[in-house]
Amino acid sequence: MKHCITFVFFLLIFSDIACAQTELQPWGNLDGIRKGGQLFSFESSLTIIDKGWTRNSSTRKEAQQPKYTRDGNKQIVNTAIDSLLLVETVKDAGNGKAKIKIEATAKSDMTIEGVFFKLNLPTTYNNGSITAKGSSISYNIAQLRPENLKIISKEITVINARQQLKFSFKDAASFIIKKNSNGTELYVPVQTGNIAKGQNTTQEFTISVSGETNKKPVQVRLDAGNQGRVFVGFGGNFRLQKPDTDPEVIDYCLNNMRVAWGRVEMPFAQWQPEKDIDPLLQDPNGNLNAHVRESMEMAQRLQRIGMPIILTSWNAPKWAIIGEPHYRQPKPGEQWGNSLNPENMQATYKSITDYIVYLKDKFGVDVSLFSFNESDLGINVRVTAQEHNTLIKGLGAYFVSRGLKTKMLLGDNSDATTYEFIYPALNDPDARPYIGAISFHSWRGWKTETLQKWADAAKKINAPLIVGEGSIDAAAWNYPDIFQEQTYAIEEINLYLRLLKICEPITILQWQLTADYSPLIGGGIFGNNEPLHPGQRFWNLKQLASTPKNSIYIAAQADQEDVTCAALINSQTDDATVHLINNGAKRGFIISGLPKTHKKLVLYITSTKLSMKKRSKIEVVNGEAHFTLPAVCFASLMTE
């Protein structure tokens, strides 16, 4: 009976989470409120305005060190801007409504205009209007002047032709509306005027959305004649960092998901801590560093499954770098990481190659690609773009001299935004024989034009493109509760489909398929002692990983902005796969351009309520399939 009560309680809690409507980022910014699955979008932040409106400081991604938690239907963010402590509680109140509570406490005296909940109105409201309850005046947004407009009311409503956004207060509040180059901004006061040390202020209000929900059927058109590059399959990072919890997560992922590529660590600093002591001559079978051995065994396990192996070094021994090793975030004005010591470069080449040779001789692992992790930034070895080119040629040639087939990874950049880092090697004919693939990490830089530069670079030298670390928030380990949120799960898988569509990578390597950024829940990870079980993110990844081997990208286009799609086909069997994100309401989908040899396809759906749920076979008539998808889900249509 006790277990039944516990299970029912768990279901109730899960139901609250699954029905969550408010899209809150863990640093405190709202992206909008969902109603009927459709996102009524806006962008908010908590903002401090200096005297004279000369400067402002706002909550934003990677600007503060927030903590995010969920308590039933409440999401709570604890953060700080300068000397101001902030607690933001967002409670889902149903029917497109959210209750917001903001608490501000000053650690020191602050001379400011005030603290505000700032909301950037979407451009869809540019031709709309603003009205205040109890007033006959309506303000046309298009005709607002740059000067501040102040409205004192218990309730204001922002209206466009199809939607409404309403703010409601218990007592009248003084709203400020500004129009500038950033668009139209609405400021809800939390505290106006100066704040004294120790002063505490609380503001509570309700935001509600209403309007039309888009239920128009979605048309997705495929063009199997417009074929691109090959997708071998989904992959993962397996850098071992948490010995107590890594093994069970790794076992679960490898036993329950097709993982096609693997990236493992070379613990360079532990492999050869002293330059003049050759690890190959020190009875490594008896004295091999424990972390080195575990990393080698990880590579061995992955290769036995059939994965190509990327070997990456996150550090280097003191003799191989300049200065004292420093791995933490640098102080203002300092750089990340350490430069390689040019005086010891040949010894560095030898040590890395010795590791790869030992890995092959003792563990049977053929390393396909080698890189220093995020060396454009310095996590934790830093090189310039030209030094990266020199390293590729020097270390690549050394690999050849030792009889290795291992190639160098061009880039392995921290983000998509730093693409210029790869250009010297990309444009150097002497470097090309040593480049096995190009890689970037997907933490930042998601604009189409930025991602396209990586696709173009790979095509220029006819090299595979790899997303070496896939996910969306490099700071998420600070607030791991966000991993269980629909917001995170949908944004992550949506990015992956965009990467497939734009970049056509040979693989995306999830960061990680270990306890770090775990796609699983419980098992003591992040202090959660529930039994280990898959979450929505795991099912998203498993569903994507189910794409048949060696599929070829084909052109696919949806006719609505809140749908993302990517399509692939096997040129020999005509097996087709169409991946879709329905980021809106429940609605019908029509897929055209499927191979006419297909008669039936299988549909898999993952959402907060469905875990790669298999639906009955979908009929295909003259290359066209019709079906309905639930709100806010990841769906995959594929051959059985």
UniProtKB/TrEMBL annotation:
Cross-referenced InterPro entries: GH (IPR017853), Glyco_hydro_b (IPR013780)
Keywords, sorted A to Z: Signal
Top-rank lineage group of the source organism: Bacteria
Signal peptide: 1-20
The keyword Signal belongs to this UniProt entry's keyword annotation: yes
Presence of keyword Signal: yes
Name this polypeptide is given: O-glycosyl hydrolase
